[in-house]
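Collaborator request, handled under Task 6.
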Amino acid sequence: MGTGLQAPLGASKLAIMLALSTGVCACAGSAAAQVEAAGPRRPSGGTVGEVVVTAERRTQSLIDVPASISAIGSTTLAERAIQSTQDLESQVPGLRVGSQAGTTQVAIRGIGLSILYGPAQPSIAQYIDGVYLSRPTFGDLATADLARVEVLRGPQGTLYGRNASGGAINYITNAPTNTFEGRAEVGYATYDQVRAEAVVSGPINDRLRGRAVVLYSDRQDGFQDNLLPGASEVDPTRSFAGRARLSYDVSDTATLDVSAYAATGRGGEYGQNTAAIPPSYIVGNPSLDGGINSLEPHKLAIQTGRFVRDATGLAVTLRVKAGPGELKSISSFDRNRLRTGFDIDSTSVDAIYLNRFERSKVFSQELSYSANIGATDLVVGAYYAHDQLFGALNDQFNGGFNAGTFLLHPGGWLDYYYFPTQQSYAAFVDINQHVTPRLKLIAGIRYSKDDIKFRQSGDFRGGLTLLPLTSPPTVIGGLDTCVDKHTSISFDAITPRLGAQYELAERQNLYATWSKGYKPGGVDWTSCGSTFDSEKLTSWEAGYKARFFDGRMTFNLSGFYYDYRNYQIYQTTGLIALESNAPKATVKGFEADAAFDVTDNLRLDGSVAGLKARWRQFSDSDTLEPTPVLQNLKGQPLPFSPDWSGQVGVQYREDFSLGGHILVRAEYYRSSRVNFRQFGNKADSQPAYGIFNAYATWNDPSDRYYARLWAKNLADKDYFVTMNSIAPTGNRQVTWGPRRQVGLDLGVKF
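Structure tokens returned to the collaborator:
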């Protein structure tokens, strides 16, 4: 398999994007009003900042939204040095984030992506300015210049549709401004990390505004140490992202917004074995014997490979005032490319090397109309997407391999090729009906249809000796496991939402909802035409939201119960891991969070999530056991679902008499045991752990210059964030969470 089917994003393309950004920067522009979620700024009169979101396609105060939502504004994102999806984990109740081999895994309330390879689809939908991110491999590329991040917990089947059965994450970027402004920031952190960001925004003429941002991050020293003499660093990372955005007032009632972006990332996390290679696997693959297999956290002995991700995209949004509401069109086109190659046995002998290549093109179009008609709030719309992917995966067995029915010769390889094309259609309507000034009824429904055409091939190549041995041995050049197989399959779903919200008193709301979520099924890429069903989730949720003490305190409480059907998961047999369905599971729990301004300067905040996510009907065999047997897994926990997690924080702000201020914050996040595989074994889990973070931000009297000192994982706790089973080596591989890192950022606004 060739993983170099397409060259990296060329210097000429980067030059064009930079030239475009520079051109927009020079002219900068004015913007239509943009709602921003207020973070914990300096309390004004001792009140916690009001938070405004657009999570339900309407502009609403967070307290008035009948759903579990965490909104983190631009000020908070900066003050807490939140630079990736991973950093959100300690800020959002019930959120888990991990990555390995270039794939980001996001889970909310135990619902998420448990599959690392192939064209697997997430259960948590991620959006940038209303545009769906189709590839989970790009979920952690830096997103710069954000106005806020909104995390919606629970199924979002009505307004968001497919792949939002567990929730959704919205990244909302800053819009071009009416006046000229800008910002430049540079930072340095331990592990030799340099980060730089620049933003300019302002008017180009009376109708046209522009905004441009570039972000560069380079960490030369990896979090993992390489014990192999003379080998390079294991996981240094480098990323670059640029975005140019234009807003044009077509008329007094219409605005056109065009956004173009490019992002590239280099580097990624290697999986590390958790145990010695079992002797029975060395018999099948003797080249594994004698190599260094480090079991010490963050220490490997491997020949380093490559992790390369590139993405470009264009989005065009048109807003037109029509009657009592607004008509909105979002058109987008994205290209993504992933290339990885690494020593998957994670030992010094380089016995098994994995190459992976994916290239995708996605076009999407959404039309929606939102209006406030008397006592009725209405959103109605339609959606279409065309998603085309080419993927190839190659396992190269440098020392050969005993597959049971044949001996693969040294240097032989196993290939998979997959070419899925998916067309998605949807229509939806969502209504909030104000029955009385205090009572609101909620009703919504969405119809989704996904047509999938899947082409695939698979083979062993490089020479095979058939077993049992004959005299002379029977040797063949290769073996086809699947030859140009074409499979067509369709899925559809109706995902309704019903509920009610009641205002107990001013700024105190109760709500209850019933809703459904949906993730389409598909074709297993490692087999030859095997299919799996759609995930479907039914949710019951009730909650309470309030502001007390003249706005000094906010409090949110929610309880939920999920009936989960056809969880999509890998079941491994020998060298083959088949994507299939676990029939039934239940998820139940609660979440609570609060923020309290004790004084005008002192704030306390915290959150807690209790979760019980268990298989209700599922049987599977663990091929990592010496003698695999079919196990009844009823009652075992789902992956990525700790029973308890929570966070507490304290921050203090001091304003100086001559102007300027300093804000300091300390926070502690703790999680109970987390399982990463379906069997519930302690070997498949990360024991309970806790992490300390600390931050200090200084602003000068003119509010032009600022400095930020931050420390993450201050106690340097060793913990892992994901796990993968490797069938050829009979081992579990984990990705460790970031080590202690301390950084200093300096910035100027103009």
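The cover message to the collaborator said: "The two ends are 51 Å apart (CA to CA). The CA atoms of residues 182 and 200 lie 4 Å apart. Please let us know whether this matches your experimental observations."
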